[in-house]
From TrEMBL:
Segments forming domain SAYSvFN: 38-107
Gene behind the chain: AVEN_111868_1
One family name in Pfam for this protein: SAYSvFN
Keywords from the UniProt entry: Membrane, Transmembrane, Transmembrane helix
Identification of the protein by name: SAYSvFN domain-containing protein
Highest taxon above the source species: Eukaryota
Positions of the UniProt region annotated as Disordered: 1-21
Length: 115
C-alpha cells in the first residue's frame, strides 16, 4: 500500500490546456521547509524586538538584509544592456523605457491611444 501511495505522490503533474507536457516544481520539500522555518524565526525575533521597543529598527535592518542578499549572483553577460541607459554603449535604452521626449509629448498632447 505504501508503494502505491508514494508513486502517486511523486508523479509529474499535467495541465489539460498544455500539450501533455509535465509540470515540474523547482523547489523540493526541504527548501520549502527551510524557508518556512526562516519566516517563523524572523517573526519570533521581530516579536522579541517589539517587546524591547526596537521593532522598527529590526524591520529596517531586515529589509536591507533581504535586499542585499537577493542581488544577482551571476555576472552580467557582455551584450546585456543595463536598465540605466547612461551605462550602455551610445546611451542605448532598453525596450519599454520612458524617454524624456516621450514623456514631454504625453504631457503636452495626452496619450494618443486613449482619446
Amino acid at each position: 500500500m505504501l508503494e502505491n501511495s508514494s508513486k502517486a505522490r511523486y508523479r509529474p503533474l499535467k495541465d489539460d490546456d498544455e500539450n501533455d507536457e509535465p509540470l515540474t516544481c523547482d523547489l523540493d520539500y526541504m527548501e520549502i521547509t527551510i524557508v518556512v522555518l526562516k519566516v517563523v524565526l524572523w517573526c519570533l525575533v521581530m516579536a522579541l524586538f517589539i517587546a524591547f521597543e526596537f521593532g522598527a529598527v529590526f524591520f529596517i535592518i531586515s529589509v536591507f538584509y533581504f535586499m542585499f542578499t537577493n542581488f544577482r549572483e551571476t555576472e552580467k553577460s557582455p551584450n546585456e544592456l543595463s536598465a540605466y541607459s547612461v551605462f550602455n554603449p551610445h546611451c542605448e535604452s532598453i525596450k519599454g523605457t520612458l524617454t524624456a521626449q516621450q514623456f514631454e509629448n504625453e504631457i503636452k498632447f495626452g496619450l494618443g491611444g486613449l482619446h
